[in-house]
Structure formats: C-alpha cells, structure tokens
Specification:
Blueprint lengths: L2 H17 L5 H7 L6 H11 L3 H11 L3 H25 L6 H32 L4 H25 L7 H17 L16 H4 L11 H17 L1 H11 L11 H4 L1 H16 L2 H30 L6 H28 L6 H31 E6 L2 E6 L1 H22 L8
Antiparallel strand pairs: 1-2
Helix pairs in contact: 1-6, 1-7, 1-8, 2-11, 3-6, 3-16, 4-6, 4-16, 5-6, 5-8, 6-16, 7-13, 10-16, 10-17, 13-15, 14-15, 14-17, 15-16, 16-17
C-alpha cells in the first residue's frame, strides 16, 4: 500500500478515537450531575501529559519501536474506554464518580502519548522515503481531522452526545488502531552498543533543550498557549446546549445538533492544515504562531457575543477561526521541535512539547476555566434534562483577554532565527 495512504489511515483513526468524546463529554457529565467537575475531567488530559508522553517517548526512542508502542497504548486506552462505557451503562441509576473518573483517567493516560508517537511514526517514515515533511505531512495530517469530524458527526447523529456510548465508540476505534499499527513502517530505536550516561539511557537529554534560549522561550509560550487548548473542548458543548433552557433558542439547529455545529471547527482545521506549508515558508515560524494566538482571541470573543439564533453567524465565525488557532500552533510547533532537535532524541522532544502544551498548560487552563465558569454559572434542571446556565459571556471574555495578553507578550519576546522565513 502507498506510504501516504498508510499514514493517512493512521491519522484518521488516531483522531477519530479522540473526536468520539472530546467535544461532547462535558454534555454527558452535565447530564449525570457532574457539570461542576467538567474541568477536572478535562484537566486529566493535561495532568497525564506531564509525564506519560515523555515516558512513552523515551521508551520509543530507546527500546520499543514507535509504531508498536503506538499500538500498545491504543490497546490499553481503548480497552479502558470500553470498560468505562460498560460501567456507566450497567450502573446508570447509581454511578460512582470515583470509578468513572478512574477508568477515564487511565484511558487518557495511555491515549495522550499517542499524539506525539503518531507524529514520530509519520515523520520517520517520510524522512526515510526522502519526502519533504513540510510539504507532504499536512495533507496526511488533514485526514486526522477528517476522522475527528466523522466521529463527532456519528456521535451526534446517533444521539450519543448525552450518553456513555460516546466512550464505547472511542474504545472500539482505539482497538482497531491497535491492530492496524503493526502494519505501519518500522521505526528504529537508538539503543546502540557501548556505555551511555544516565541522561542518555533514560532519554532525559531532551530536557537539555531548555539550555537553548530559543527552545526555552518556545516551550514557555507553548505552555502559556496550552492554557487555551482544552477550554472550548470542555465547555463549548454545554455552553451552546444551555440555550435549550431558553424557549426562543430551544429549537435552533445549533442547540439540537451541537456537535455538528462544533464540527465546523474541525472542518476549518482540515482546511487550515493545508495552508501551513505556504504560511510557514512565507511568514516564518514566529508569525505563524502569532497568528494562531490572535485567532484564539477571536475564538473566545465571538463565543461571548454570539447566540444560536440571530447571532449564530458569530458562532460559525468562531468555528472557522479555530482551524487557524489550533493548527497554526500545534502543527508548526511540532515542525519547529523536529527541525531543532537531534534524531536520537526526537520522540522525547515531541513528548516534551506535549508535556508543556497538553500537560502543564492544559492542566492550568482547564482548572482555571472551571473556576471561572463556576463563578458565573450554575447547573439547573429543565424537565428531564440538566443544563449549565448563567453569565457565559463574561467567562468567554475572560478567556479572550488572557489570549490577547499571551499574543502581545509573544510578539515582543520570541525572536527565533527561522530557516523557513
């Protein structure tokens, strides 16, 4: 099978696993009375990213081929998601929060490292084939977003948004990717012969990147921007769904099909991925990341001003700028790490990038966002459903103000020498 097709299938499944629950889990948690804890569930993605991607990246660099490690992680993550769905299904009337939280947390602990591993597998295969990563990877990666979208639509159309079946969907897809991963191109490990230092043996050399000013600043701003990454994933669905409590908005398309409306974000993401080669070569890494930061300001600000009725155009515009906000930083950031690290620590370096963005940054962001949301909203019952209602606009304006501060600081401080500019 053609190499690009094989890597495309890997990316499709990789992100379909995530898309099955990432944007709708907050809705389900609100439905079962855990609306005030949404941030804690989403923060787990950040907490495990503090150590799991780095640890798994070290193993992939030193002992287990990256494509096999990718499969093993998906087996564990998928199996635990199936177990979570089964538990919620069979204990619907008496759900134990600690069990739900534990199963979910363990699953996420094995899933988060796969985001970096899938990049390592793709980059390794493309390099061995003599291809141009900046040119050839984005069209492959775009199908990851397609997989995310299709999973979102499936969950919406099957009416799984407020159901544990979204977890079952994710688990089954993960197990499929486990099986498929063993057909992917092999990645070499760098165990070698001879004596190695402690840092070399355990992959800690990636942390030496902090000695370089440009890399230290890059990781610092990656962390600061990471604060924004999971906010809309956790709160956009319950925010839009809350309009169902208002008669004038209850029957609008966005309220009835929140996931499909939100999927415009991923459609935008798919399109924006294809623009990355042009923007990176034309404007350089700093400007591409700065554009992403300003897009986050618009993303949050438009949520604050819009509604699913006559203001739905603001929601739609917010979805469209998401592609720029997410892709222009995450994909270009992965390229920046890859181009500025040695081959023997590349998987570890990608894991470190995940640590500061989806680890430290996302953890701080989701917990802080939950605190802000709890100050201005409450969970209330309307008939058979529960919604998180209140002054959502103030919440979104707070998030927009933070993003603007990060963008201005980045523009003034970060000054890399960019070979692509």
């Amino acid at each position: 099978m053609n190499l690009k097709v094989r890597l495309t299938a890997m990316n499709f499944l990789e992100f379909a696993v995530w898309g099955a629950y990432l944007t709708s889990m907050g809705r389900y948690l609100g439905e079962i009375g855990l609306g005030a804890n949404i941030g804690f569930f989403y923060s787990i993605q950040g907490i495990v990213s503090l150590f799991m991607p780095a640890i798994i990246g070290i193993v992939a660099d030193r002992w287990v081929q990256a494509q096999k490690m990718l499969g093993y992680c998906h087996l564990m993550a998928g199996g635990l998601m199936v177990a979570l769905a089964w538990y919620c299904m069979t204990n619907a009337q008496a759900i134990d929060t600690s069990i739900v939280f534990s199963l979910y947390s363990l699953s996420v602990a094995f899933y988060m490292p796969t985001l970096a591993l899938s990049n390592s597998v793709a980059f390794n295969a493309l390099q061995k084939a003599g291809m141009d990563m900046v040119k050839d990877f984005p069209p492959i990666r775009v199908f990851g977003t397609v997989g995310f979208i299709i999973a979102m639509w499936f969950v919406d159309i099957m009416d799984f948004e407020a159901s544990q079946m979204q977890f079952m969907t994710s688990g089954v897809l993960g197990i499929i990717l486990f099986l498929y991963s063993f057909t992917l191109p092999k990645c070499e490990v760098s165990s070698g012969k001879g004596k190695n230092s402690f840092a070399e043996a355990f992959g800690l050399k990636a942390f030496s990147l902090f000695k370089q000013k440009k890399m230290a600043l890059f990781f610092l701003f990656s962390m600061m921007l990471g604060v924004s990454l999971q906010i809309t994933n956790g709160f956009a669905n319950p925010f839009i769904a809350s309009f169902a409590s208002m008669p004038e908005y209850a029957d609008t398309f966005g309220v009835r099909h929140t996931n499909i409306l939100l999927s415009l974000s991923q459609i935008s993401e798919a399109c924006c991925i294809l623009l990355i080669p042009f923007f990176m070569k034309r404007f350089g890494i700093k400007n591409v990341m700065l554009i992403a930061m300003m897009a986050w300001v618009l993303r949050f600000g438009l949520f604050a001003l819009g509604n699913p009725g006559d203001g739905v155009w603001m929601f739609v515009l917010s979805m469209l700028v998401y592609g720029v906000a997410f892709d222009f930083f995450n994909i270009s950031g992965a390229f920046f790490v890859d181009m500025n690290t040695d081959t023997n620590i590349r998987s570890s370096a990608q894991g470190l990038f995940m640590l500061v963005t989806n680890g430290i940054g996302a953890t701080i962001g989701t917990l802080a966002a939950q605190w802000v949301v709890n100050q201005y909203t409450t969970t209330e019952s309307f008939g058979d459903n529960s919604f998180i209602v209140g002054d959502w606009s103030t919440c979104w304006f707070v998030f927009a103000a933070y993003s603007l501060f990060v963008a201005i600081s980045f523009a003034l401080v970060f000054k890399p020498v960019d070979p692509n500019k």
